[in-house]
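Dear Dr. H.,

I hope your travels went smoothly. While you were away I took the liberty of generating a structure for the chain from your last submission, since the lab meeting agenda had it listed for discussion. I wanted you to have the full record in hand beforehand rather than looking at slides cold. The sequence, exactly as received, is reproduced here:
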Amino acid sequence: MPALPLLDESLYPLLWQDKSFKSAQALIAVLLQNSDLTDASSAQSIAQAQQQFSQHLQHNAHYQDWVNFTVFGRYIQRSFSAFYRQNEDVFNSDMPELLRYELMRHTQRLPVGQVLLFGGVLPKSVRQEKLLIATVNPYQALQQALRSYSKAKATDPIIINLITAQSDKVKAFAIKHNKRTRDGRRNDVMILDFTQLVLVKEDAIKKNTQSDRQYLIRHYRIS
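The corresponding predicted structure, in token form, is as follows:
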């Protein structure tokens, strides 16, 4: 099984909005420190930045390698629409083996050191089902975290999970997109097989703006 090239190696350091970021974690930390993410204007600017970052990824040669030999999200949705939750591009927890086998044919090995992002609390089913849809777009993870927060208690924290590959045995693929793909699904990466997912540490972000909300970055290792 071929290995994907290390995307972060070509993506970072990143010159973005007149600032330099050495990693996705650095970009996420600055965004969490300086914005009230539940403010309407901030949410709108994050949505715009998500589209801009997605376009930036499209010009990255390594990212093109990730998506050029994989399947369209719409192809998966049309073929297996019965196994989707409502209109979301996420898979039902009762994924049959036939569907998993079909998707496994498109997997490649995730490179050691690659960081993927997931917004909100990781589902408890992830470790059991060995299935997770994450992203390489930090703004997409922020949007996901905000959607999760809007359905949670007011006292619950806004969480961004950073998932770092610690071995080359993690099987995944980037979902290819076209002009009909929703913006919120454009930079998804589907992890379909792994051995361990371990929470390493949790960082509480100190805000530069007044806010009663708690912002957390959780660091995971996947192998």
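Two observations you may find useful: Confidence is low (pLDDT under 50) at residues 80-89. The first helix runs from residue 7 to 11.

With kind regards,
E. W.
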